[in-house]
Design brief:
By secondary structure, this protein is mostly beta strands. It has one domain: Transthyretin/hydroxyisourate hydrolase domain (Immunoglobulin-like, Sandwich). The protein is 6% helix and 44% strand. The chain has one helix and eight strands. It has one helix at 67-73, and strands at 3-9, 14-15, 20-27, 30-38, 59-66, 86-93, 100-106, 111-113. It is globular and about 40 Å long.
């Protein structure tokens, strides 16, 4: 349980291995970095949950996915400026006894997310 993420590269049809991600706790306009990490071969945080049940607190959070850098590292020719650079997802945690999974489906031109299980 806790908080997890998973990123799929919909342009190449694979996990976004090597993408850099940052997790922040937010309160209004303020944010506090909790951790930075690089996604593993499966497009996930190597150590499992980003926050386990004991660390997860009710409140608001932000995941920032370095989309442009990832696609450039894959050899994708992007215009300058790129359509997407860093994708920020702001979300709330209301019930810390539940699992919150925040997946990202992304290409250089679009993204989508949802609350997964």
């Amino acid at each position: 349980m806790g908080l997890s993420t998973h990123v799929l590269d919909t342009m190449h049809g694979c996990p976004a291995a090597g993408m850099q991600v940052a997790l922040y706790a937010t309160e209004g306009a303020d944010s506090r970095l909790i951790k930075r990490f690089v996604l593993n071969a499966d497009g996930r945080h190597e150590a499992g949950p980003l926050l386990d049940n004991h660390s997860l607190q009710a409140g608001t959070y932000r995941l920032v996915f370095e989309v442009k850098a990832y696609f450039v590292s894959r050899g994708v020719a992007l215009p300058e400026p790129a359509f997407l650079d860093a994708v920020s997802l702001d979300f709330g945690i209301a019930d810390v006894s539940q699992h919150y999974h925040v997946p990202l489906l992304v290409s250089p031109w679009s993204y989508s997310t949802y609350r997964g299980s």
